[in-house]
Amino acid sequence: MIAHLRGALASSGADHAVIDVNGVGYLVGASAKTLDKLGAVGEQVTIHTEMLVSEDSIRLMGFATADERDWFKLLTSVQGVGAKVALAILSILAPEELRTAVARADSATIARANGVGPKLAQRIVNELKDKAGGLALGGVGATAAPSGGAGADAVSAMLNLGFKPAEASAAVNAASDELGPAATLDALVRLALRKAAK
Fold first, then answer.
1. What are the phi and psi torsion angles at 45 (to 5°)?
2. Quick one: 151 exposed, middle or buried, by C-beta within 10 A (0-12, 13-18, 19+)?
3. Which helix (H) or strand (E) holds 194?
4. Which of 85, 125, 129, 165 has the fewest CB atoms within 10 Å, measured from its CB?
């Protein structure tokens, strides 16, 4: 599993970018908001990734923040929402805006995205209103302090291990409070697992 890429931005298109990591160009699908944040060709970038594996392809999706990546995973967990629709939603709504729309059951805001009709927008709101609580850590920029990135990545790791969003968030927050702002991802996940097991 590739969790993130750090390298030079080799090129970008309407819905993708190529990141050159030590001479290997990784093609990553991305939202318009992520592509806007990457900067100019040739600049060094860090991009959070999610690997999508299907019968006939392996694709990397790229995100400016771990928060955006976590929302992509949540969105694609909804029936009828594939990678393309999830990226369309994230192209018009930042994670914080999406979180607010889901919390307020504002399906009209989500329906503004290309390929999202009123019924699908309503389904997204209905299915995510309980799950979205686990993403309460907020957005974490690619240039944010390591503790912020480690916190969001730790929540993501806990979610991947099968914890509910609220449990994962609570355990990581408790671990972060105990370890302080300089905590590494590894230390956070270890302590969060111990706290969740109590």
1. -135, 155
2. buried
3. helix 185-197
4. 129
Reported as type and span, the H/E element at residue 172 is: helix 165-179
* CA atoms of 167 and 134, how far apart (whole Å): 7
Q: In this structure, which amino acid lies at residue 15?
A: D
Q: Cα separation of 71 and 156, whole Å? A: 10
Pick 105 or 165 by higher pLDDT. Answer: 105
Q: Which two tokens stand for residue 98?
A: 């999406």
Domains of the chain, each with CATH number or no CATH = 2-61 (2.40.50.140), 66-135 (1.10.150.20), 148-195 (1.10.8)
Place of tokens 């994230």: 90
Residues 71-130: tens digit of each pLDDT? 999 999 998 899 999 999 999 999 888 888 888 888 899 999 988 999 999 999 988 887
